[in-house]
Design brief:
heterodimer, A: about 425 residues, two-stranded antiparallel ribbon, about 70% helix, globular, B: mainly alpha, 4 strands
Chain lengths: ~425, ~425
């Protein structure tokens, strides 16, 4: 029986690899999706069986999912005979999380697009709504969500664990909520470029763009509801509330100098970190992890999110417009005082009145830009980002060691060292 | 203390709306807006509306008593929240500008016929009329009003979603590339505030819905938000996204079927565009009927009713909304000739279908609906039988809504709903 099933699965592995191979030949980047369909949580075990046995006959050890992935990839690369040698062993070394999750992330934008397309019969609405789901984004949020999902699943179920379809849905939802907020931000900030192409508000009229944002949120919200989990719905509805409140906070700058930094951090949490924190919490809830583990996931996401945004604010001062895909010093031009400015303020108090008038007078933006570079503001911002990154890494260390858990650790570095 | 103050404020506002001579109020506030934006109610229309109010108002205020205090959240959470206090501050800066957000805000406060409150009210009346399953614990009931707390929360969500949509619809389209002197900063600022306020309401309805802990309900109501967004893309639009009717199809290509049975799927569009009746129905099902219908259906779901009755609730809301829309469309043609009127109203749609050559008048409005010769179209509508056909359309929708009403037990809430429907018809007879 075991023999029978393993040979069947072996054939499946070969199919899979050949498939991959075939796709590789035709189109450089496309891999077949390995995600089986269906919503039942039991499938953790269903899929696990498959994974373990696929590994069994081929490598002679009941290795972990990661080992299997490594093996599959090694086989794949040898089949393609394009690689310079065998890839590193994922069991012991740290690898790029995007590569580790290639199969899970593959087709995620297509899936989002088809979900949106299913929900409208108005062609133009579909065009606007799918505009930012062109696969050019970093897909950081889905990546972190899936990574956490696999790490927590491993933590709870051990090596016999796999990604739940519902968890992948959360990954898609997180990217959709993010895009919906980007689309509304574009209208609010009147930005011309995003992700290296004209932003939506340049191409379509504002009413339609606003409606497209509402539409994406509505579809995401329907997807959330279809997961049929009260807790997940509550957690993710918090994200939407936070996003709006963060946006409101960005509108006002009445606070005193002392409150300013706290205000900035709260705003950063609400606008950026909440989405990451709550979506990783949602995947932990879906995996059935205990409260403490869910909290670890949440805090990891919160710290990673804060670190991410701090770096973002930093890059707005140092990166070139070309690398970012959007104009730099954009925050100053919008009248926003981010961490580098707030830090610089300590050394150059003349920044205070500029902050209060939201860099509204001519020359303010250039002057502030220069003072930030002269101060230690950028350095201090990086330090704070590092601290949050380190805290995230410390939290990830609470989870059982696995390739995914190590990738969570690596992600904190990726976020810190990114250049765009 | 704060509660009583607020309710006093609210009733004060209402009195004002009635007492202040409407023409001065309108010219004072709306005058400058007319240049930029076509208002749904032109001044003369608003006066006509004013004269026909009593029956309507009586039906609504009687109905409000039946389900307890006025349903609107405007008086409470809206005024008390930090975010809205913030918005109110910013709104003040906009006074004097022509941003339509001010108009939207005014429409929310003054109880026009198109008011928000009535939507939540209908959801509550349907809730009360249908009753609820005996298994629902006492704790979850508002015994005095005869509805569930969850249904009241749902009624609020309905109002929030509708308001959010109206606020987002009130954005001004500005050309990001070529900003001109006509589009100053306060327009941009107004857009920002409008977008955020709408988002705030949408976010609040998300969390209110999540708190009801009923995922089928969340899915249903989210699909209503989706429908509202879709509504803004149906058919042709001018530069400010004001809707224009589509060119009527030749007789032989018209289809008559109308299907809204698959509630969760987006509304099918095949054969809709260019067929007067269906295009009108689709447009207003998306823009209004879906939300009211889905809310009624959701209220029955919360009460533990069988799916069959939930579907009936949906149909009731949908047909009521359409009857209501037909009523609003007719209003332009009952009083003195208005300066402008809805180009996608049923009377004009029927007239265009009968006389396709009139479509050239519509084409003049491609850039802006203000360019349309309303007088010529008005005359054409009066000459044809568009008004009669619209009345017939309204009667049909009312009949279907009343049919559903029959399936509820006879009670004060059912009577109140019937009265609202009657008030809607009477005004034209």
């Amino acid at each position: 029986m075991a023999c029978l099933s393993s040979s069947r699965l072996c054939a499946r592995v070969q199919d899979k690899l050949l498939c991959q191979f075939g796709h590789k030949v035709r189109k450089q980047t496309v891999f077949v999706k390995l995600k089986p369909p269906g919503p039942s949580p039991l499938r953790i075990f269903g899929k696990t069986c498959q994974r373990v046995t696929t590994c069994g006959p081929a490598c002679g050890s009941g290795g972990a999912g990661a080992a299997t992935a490594g093996l599959v990839r090694r086989l794949a690369s040898s089949l393609q005979s394009t690689s310079t040698g065998s890839l590193p062993d994922y069991g012991t070394q740290i690898i790029d999380p995007y590569r580790l999750l290639e199969d899970d992330l593959n087709g995620i934008y297509e899936d989002i697009r088809s979900e949106l397309e299913k929900n409208t019969n108005q062609a133009e609405l579909n065009t606007i709504a799918t505009y930012y789901f062109d696969g050019q984004g970093k897909a950081l949020r889905p990546m972190v969500a899936i990574l956490m999902a696999r790490a927590v699943n491993y933590h709870v179920y051990g090596e016999n664990s796999a990604l739940l379809p519902s968890q992948r849905q959360v990954a898609m939802i997180s990217e959709m909520i993010h895009s919906a907020s980007l689309i509304h931000d574009d209208v609010i900030d009147q930005s011309d470029f995003r992700r290296g192409k004209p932003s939506v508000n340049v191409l379509w009229n504002h009413k339609k763009v606003a409606m497209a944002g509402d539409f994406i949120l509505a579809v995401a919200s329907m997807m959330i509801a279809r997961l049929r989990s009260d807790d997940v719905t509550l957690v993710l509805s918090q994200v939407v509330t936070d996003l709006v409140q963060g946006e409101f906070m960005q509108l006002g700058s009445k606070e005193t100098e002392n409150e300013r930094f706290a205000h900035y951090l709260t705003k950063t949490y609400r606008k950026t970190a909440s989405l990451i924190a709550n979506s990783v919490k949602a995947v932990a809830l879906l995996s059935g992890a205990d409260e403490a583990t869910c909290e670890v996931a949440f805090q990891y996401g919160r710290n990673l999110g804060l670190s991410f945004q701090l770096v973002d604010d930093l890059l707005d001062f140092v990166s070139s417009a070309q690398a970012m895909g959007k104009p730099t010093a954009a925050d100053l031009k919008l009248g926003l005082a981010t961490a580098p400015v707030l830090f610089a303020c300590e050394k150059y108090p003349e920044l205070n009145p500029m902050i209060m008038r939201r860099f509204g007078e001519s020359g303010d933006v250039e002057k502030a830009f220069e003072l930030v570079h002269k101060s230690r503001g950028l350095e201090q911002t990086r330090f704070l980002a590092k601290q949050h990154g380190a805290e995230a890494a410390r939290l990830a260390a609470h989870l059982s060691p696995s390739a995914y858990q190590r990738a969570l650790l690596l992600t904190t570095d990726l976020v810190l060292n990114r250049i765009k | 203390m704060s509660l009583s103050r607020l309710s006093a404020l609210r009733s004060g506002l209402r009195c004002n709306a009635v007492k202040v001579p409407s023409s001065t109020m309108i010219s004072q506030y709306w005058g400058p807006c007319d240049r930029r934006e076509l208002s749904i109610h032109s001044p003369r229309q608003a006066i006509a509306q004013h004269n026909t109010k009593p029956d309507w108002n009586r039906a609504v205020s009687e109905a409000e008593k039946i389900v307890g205090y006025p349903t609107s959240f405007l008086s409470l959470r809206w005024v008390l929240s930090d975010e809205i206090a913030n918005v109110a501050l910013h709104l003040r800066k906009l006074v004097g500008s022509n941003h339509p957000l001010l108009k939207t805000a005014k429409n929310l406060i003054y109880n026009g016929k198109n008011n928000m409150q009535a939507w939540g009210l209908i959801v509550l009346l349907v809730s009360k009329a249908a009753g609820h399953s005996p298994e629902i614990p006492d704790m979850e009931q508002d015994k005095a009003a005869g509805v569930l707390h969850s249904q009241r929360a749902l009624a609020e969500v309905t109002e929030m979603i509708r308001t959010s949509h109206l606020v987002h619809k009130g954005l001004v389209n500005m050309n990001a590339r070529h900003r001109t002197a006509d589009e100053p900063d306060d327009m941009m600022f107004g857009n920002k505030i409008a977008l955020l306020s709408g988002d705030y309401l949408l976010a609040n309805s998300c969390s209110e819905l999540a708190n009801l802990r009923n995922q089928e309900l969340v899915e249903l109501m989210s699909s209503a938000v989706r429908d509202l967004a879709e509504a803004e893309f149906l058919g042709e639009r001018d530069d400010q996204n004001n809707p224009l009717p589509s060119r009527p199809l030749p007789q032989e290509q018209r289809e008559n079927a109308s299907e809204w049975d698959c509630i969760l799927n987006p509304l099918p569009m095949s054969g809709v565009i260019g067929s007067a009746r269906r295009e009108w129905a689709a447009r207003h099902v998306l823009a209004a009927g879906a939300l009211l219908g889905k809310s009624c259906s959701a209220a029955l779901k919360l009460a533990g009713h069988i799916p069959g009755l939930q579907t009936k609730g949906y149909l009731f809301g949908c047909h009521l909304a359409l009857a209501w829309q037909a009523f609003l469309d007719l209003e332009a043609f009952t009083g003195p000739e208005p300066a402008s009127f809805s180009l996608v109203g049923a009377p004009l749609a029927f007239t265009l279908e009968a006389r396709p050559e009139l479509y050239s008048y519509i084409e003049a409005g491609r850039k802006s609906v203000h360019e349309v010769d309303y007088h010529a179209l008005y005359k054409a509508v009066l000459e044809g039988d568009g008004i009669e056909q619209t009345k017939q359309l309204q009667r049909e929708h009312i009949a279907t809504a009343c049919e559903v009403l029959e399936s509820f037990p006879n009670c004060d809430a059912r009577t109140a709903l019937a009265n609202i429907i009657v008030a809607m018809q009477q005004d034209h007879l």
